[in-house]
Amino acid sequence: MAERRKRVTVRVSYAPDDPMIPVILRAFRVAEGTRELRGSGNLLNEPALVKEYLAGLHGDDSQEQTGALYLNARNRLIRHDPEVYRGTLDRAVVEPREILKRALLCNAVGIILYHNHPSGDPTPSREDREFTRRVSASAEAVGLRLLDHIVVGSAGCVSFREVGLL
């Protein structure tokens, strides 16, 4: 039997120039998207599905940000970490250790790493490619798999797996 969900609308008064409004709205988008992914039963084994989900959440971010989707052995979402690291306008320096630690703590088998390019151009940089190689090798050493690394920009998304970089 199909589950019926009730949609709740909350009205909040706020000052139009309140700097927290974009942060709160983004948190709601992430929560709603994660709930939909978990509840849909969709497998996250298709780059197109993951790219569509991430583009809606991170395509217009003004700071570079790195996140991760942690998956079980059947490629179903266990945990979404939308902000493993928040960087500057053009850089987010992240160590593989933090990503792997979070994956191991939630008993993940696979990781889909992602970050945005505030410039809008989702073309992976040399640093992106090197970082992906480091995370992939580190993950393999502890029994995890880096399934994909997706770069999100307002002009679209690039999947390392789809373009043969992983």
Walk me through this protein's architecture.
Strand 3, helix 4 and strand 4 form a beta-alpha-beta unit. The protein has helices spanning 20-40, 47-58, 96-105, 126-141; strands spanning 65-71, 77-86, 110-116, 145-153, 156-159. The protein has four helices and five strands, in the order ααββαβαββ. The radius of gyration is 16 Å and the shape is globular. Helix 3 (96-105) packs across helix 4 (126-141). It is of the alpha+beta class and 166 residues long. The model is unreliable at 38-42 (pLDDT under 50). The longest helix is centred in the N-terminal third of the chain and has 21 residues, at 20-40. A five-stranded mixed sheet has the order 2-1-3-4-5, with helices on both faces. It has a single domain, classed as 3-Layer(aba) Sandwich (Cytidine Deaminase, domain 2), CATH 3.40.140. Helix content is 36%, strand content 22%.
Helix content: 25-40%
CATH homologous superfamily descriptor: Cytidine Deaminase, domain 2
Estimate the strand proportion.
Answer: 15-25%
Biggest sheet layout: 5 strands, mixed
Structural class: alpha+beta
Query: What's the number of helices?
Result: 4
Quaternary structure state of the chains depicted: single chain
What is the H-and-E element order? HHEEHEHEE
What is the CATH class designation? Alpha Beta
Q: What is the end-to-end distance?
A: 40 Å
Shape: globular
- Extended strand count: 5
User: Structurally, how many domains make up the residues?
Assistant: 1
The main sheet orders its strands as 2-1-3-4-5
The name of the CATH architecture is 3-Layer(aba) Sandwich
Radius of gyration: 16 Å
CATH topology: Cytidine Deaminase, domain 2
Instruction: Estimate the mean pLDDT confidence.
Output: 78
